Each structure stands twice: as C-alpha cells, then as structure tokens.
C-alpha cells in the first residue's frame, strides 16, 4: 500500500508528460525542467509504484503494464484538480437548489420576510430559505455554529470575522385599536400612560419604553408581556390596550390586521439596521435580495408623523 501523503502533485505531472512524450528530454522541455530533474522524479515514481513504469527502447520510453493501468486514473485526477482551481461555478438563481438560513428577530421577519420569500419564488423557485430567530447577542454564536448564512440585526456588535453593511434605520411607534381605546390623535402622554400596555420583550420584563419613561419620572402599566411581535394583533383588536414596537413591524401588522399605527408621545430615538455575513460564505445575489427587501420594508424616518 503506497503512502500517497508522501507524494506530491508534481510527480503525477511528470508521469503524464512521460506518458505523452515517451521521452525524458521532451518531457523535460514540456515541463520547463532539466532532464536530471525529470529523471529524479521518474525514480521516485518507480519507487512508489514498485515498477519501472517506463522502459527505454529503440522507439523511446515505453510504458509497462503498470504504467498503462495508472495513466487513465492520473489523467482524470489531474483534470479534476485543474478544474477545481480554475473554474468558479456561477450561481444561477433560476436553476439553483441552494438553501439559505437567515438570522433575524421576528419584527424583521414580519416586515421583510414576505418580501424575501416573494422575490425568491419569482426569481429562484428552487431556492429555499429558513428564518432563524436571532439578535445581536446570539448572532455570533449562530454564525460560528454554521446555523445561519446571513443575519440582520439592530445596532450589532461587529467582530472582525464578520462583514457588515448598514441597510437602513428604524424607530418605534404605537399600535392600537382606536375605537376600542376611545382615543383621537395625536396621542397624548396622559392617554399613553392611562392605557394598559402590551410589552414585547425577550425577557418578558421591561423594554426601552420603561427606561425612557423612568428618566421622565413616569411608569406605565403592563397588562400582558409577550415574546413575539407577531402575537400582538389578537391581543389588541377590540381591546383597550396599546403596544409600542419597532415601526417597521407596526406598519406590517397594521396592514394585515386593521389596527392603527401612531407616533409615540415620547422620544424613543432611532437605530441602525445592518446586514451581516461571513466573507468565506458570501453569496452576492442573496445578499442583494435581503438588502432590497429591507430597503423597501424599513420606513423613511423623516416622513413619519402621527395620523
């Protein structure tokens, strides 16, 4: 059994040159090597194969039966290696069956997920996608485990191994059923504090609204705490209650539920939204699909005003 880990690809190249040229001198010229270098490589080949491989005759270097048996596998192997190094397979969305895993919180899934899915259905019907729950605290672990290919997060903590691109900004708004709440707009701080609140938080305890109200010397009454924005509509329709959430999610939920979006009566600020990926696993086409979807889904913060 030959230990091929001790061999190198140059020996296969020398073998194939001798196979085709049937001459040490011509093989040397073809490889731009000296005859002595080719002869030394032939000696190593003979030792590895335990066979003369090429025998000098009046008609040149003739292959032995062992060499004849080796020729085709080595030719095929050389072709495969050359192809691997010289050919980059282009990604064709129309025919690709690739699967992508995207990490993002459910407010982003609500706002941009359908846009991504529709674009894939139109341009890449065989490409599939999984949306994984992620945020800036979990995204690095998910990348390292190979669980996601791309991620969209708010104000990420960027590490050196991840590439990133800011794709927009968002802020916060309120979602409610005005008829059930008996309110007119604009929403006042008094009305805001009087209404029962629905809190959406991963911890289920408090959020940015509570922190801002505390600095103003106020507090709200949280009636129910949820972990997913998508659960809000059934809790709000026909109910005297209000929720404060990212504006892009509020607008998407209002569009399918009949609820109303309005500006919060306190300044909750804005935040950047970034797309993250690994340099070694990038797909420019998919990255563009994600970027386009978020540029459409994220609001124009300069035009937002109460109804």
Give an overview of the whole structure:
With about 300 residues, the chain is an alpha/beta fold. It contains twelve helices and twelve strands. It has helices at about 10-20, 25-30, 35-50, 65-85, 105-125, 140-145, 180, 190-195, 210-215, 230-235, 245-255, 285-295, and strands at about 55, 60-65, 100-105, 130-135, 150-155, 160-170, 170-175, 195-200, 220-225, 240-245, 260, 270-280. It has a five-stranded mixed β-sheet with strand order 4-3-5-12-6. Helix 1 (about 10-20) crosses helix 2 and helix 1 (about 10-20) crosses helix 3.
What is the helix/strand order?
Answer: HHHEEHEHEHEEEHHEHEHEHEEH
Q: Which shape, going by the Cα principal axes?
A: rod-shaped
Overall pLDDT: 89
Q: How many DSSP helices?
A: 12
Strand content: 15-25%
Query: Would you report the number of β strands?
Result: 12
Structural class call reads alpha/beta
Instruction: Specify Rg, calculated over alpha carbons.
Output: 33 Å
The main pleated sheet reads as: 5 strands, mixed
Q: What is the percent of helical residues? A: 40-55%
Question: What is the CA-CA span between the terminal residues?
Answer: 80 Å
Low-confidence stretches: none
As laid out across the biggest beta sheet, the strand order is: 4-3-5-12-6
Keywords: DNA-binding, Transcription, Transcription regulation
Family: Belongs to the LysR transcriptional regulatory family.
Organism: Gluconobacter cadivus
Domain HTH lysR-type: 7-64
């Amino acid at each position: 059994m030959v230990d091929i880990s001790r061999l190198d690809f140059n020996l296969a190249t020398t073998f194939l040159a001798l196979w085709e040229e049937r001459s040490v001198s011509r093989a040397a010229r073809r490889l731009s090597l000296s005859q002595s270098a080719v002869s030394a490589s032939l000696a190593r080949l003979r030792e590895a194969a335990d066979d003369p491989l090429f025998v000098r005759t009046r008609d040149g270097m003739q292959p032995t039966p062992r060499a004849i048996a080796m020729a085709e596998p080595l030719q095929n192997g050389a072709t495969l290696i050359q192809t691997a190094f010289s050919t980059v397979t282009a990604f064709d969305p129309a025919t690709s069956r690739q699967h992508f895993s995207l990490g993002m919180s459910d407010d982003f899934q609500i706002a941009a997920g359908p846009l991504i899915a529709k674009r894939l259905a139109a341009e890449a019907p065989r490409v599939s996608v999984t949306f994984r729950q992620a945020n800036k605290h979990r995204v690095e672990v998910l990348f390292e485990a190979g669980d996601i290919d791309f991620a969209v997060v708010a104000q990420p903590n960027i590490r050196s191994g991840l590439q990133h691109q800011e794709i927009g900004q968002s802020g916060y708004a309120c979602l409610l059923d005005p008829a059930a709440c008996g309110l007119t707009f604009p929403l006042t701080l008094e009305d805001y504090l009087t209404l029962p609140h629905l809190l959406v938080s991963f911890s289920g305890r408090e959020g940015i609204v509570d922190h801002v109200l505390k600095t103003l010397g106020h507090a709200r009454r949280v009636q129910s705490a949820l972990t997913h924005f998508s659960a809000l509509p059934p809790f709000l329709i026909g109910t005297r209650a209000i929720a404060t959430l990212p504006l892009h999610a509020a607008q998407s939920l209002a569009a399918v539920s009949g609820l109303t979006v309005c500006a919060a009566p306190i300044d909750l600020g804005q935040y950047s939204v970034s797309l993250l990926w690994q340099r070694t696993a990038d797909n420019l086409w998919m990255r563009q699909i994600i970027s386009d979807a978020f540029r459409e889904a994220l609001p124009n913060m300069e035009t937002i005003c109460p109804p």
